[in-house]
Amino acid sequence: MRAGAINWAKIDTVLLDMDGTLLDLRFDNWFWRELVPSRYAALHGISVAAARAVLEPKFQAAQGTLKWYCIEHWTRELKLDIASIKQAVRHEIGYLAGAENFLLKLKESGKRRVLVTNAHPLTLAIKDARLGLRLHFDACYSTHAFDAPKEQAQFWPRLHAAEPFVRERTLMIDDSVPVLDAAHGFGVGWLRAVSRPDSAQSAQLTGRHAAIDRVADLFA
Q: Model confidence over 103-117: pLDDT tens digits?
């Protein structure tokens, strides 16, 4: 469903996802669906189609767990230096339209700005070095420090212990419906789903969660 207006007077803290919310998920989709299979194919002397047939079950089995986001896991599993490959193509990483300007306006608003990402710390470091993400936040957290991804219920009390936000006065913005479901279950008062996480793809369904095309819409 489409989102109503945010009542910013009732919000103190904004929890923001990184990939697909601030940064264009086009990069990650290309990296995992195109580049990694091509590198895996070259390593094993097989076709890219054959590589995808090997990789897809591995990826599906890991989705929804911390392993899916873990560079170290995939480096071991695939025998590819994922961090080095990602570093080599970092120039492809970019903001979604209007996202950086949104972050600047959010700073002006005086709200506490907290980045909460499932990305591995090495991925966060590469993207921060490329775009200066940390400059826009009061705090940045990778879920790897909490031993659970955002879509799992046990993550939220662990985050809350480190970042004691007032639940009913907190806004969570994410492109993942399971993540928003978990945040809702923890009692986060304001939720918005990004429906266009990948600039190269059409809008996704966001279930019961109020949707915005992009974070820039929140200050439109």
A: 999 999 999 999 999
Q: Is 73:80 a contact under the CB 8 Å cutoff? A: no
Q: What is the mean pLDDT of the chain?
A: 96
Q: Nearest Cα to 123, choosing from 196, 39, 194, 25?
A: 25
DSSP state of 193: E
Neighbouring residues of 59: CB distance < 8 A, sequence distance ≥ 6: 32, 68
Strand segments (E) across 2-117: 13-16, 112-117
Residue-by-residue DSSP string for 86-131: HHHTGGG--BPTTHHHHHHHHHHHT-EEEEEE-S-HHHHHHHHHHH
Given a cut of 90, whether residue 5 has pLDDT beyond it is: no
- pLDDT (tens digit, 9 = 90+) per residue, 19-60? 999 999 999 999 999 999 999 999 999 999 999 999 999 999
| Chain-centre distance for alpha carbon 213 | 15
pTM for this one? 0.95
Catalogue all structural domains in the chain, each as residue range(s) with its CATH number.
8-24+95-219 (3.40.50.1000), 27-91 (no CATH)
**Contact partners, residue 102, CB within 8 Å, separation at least 6:** 215, 216, 218, 219
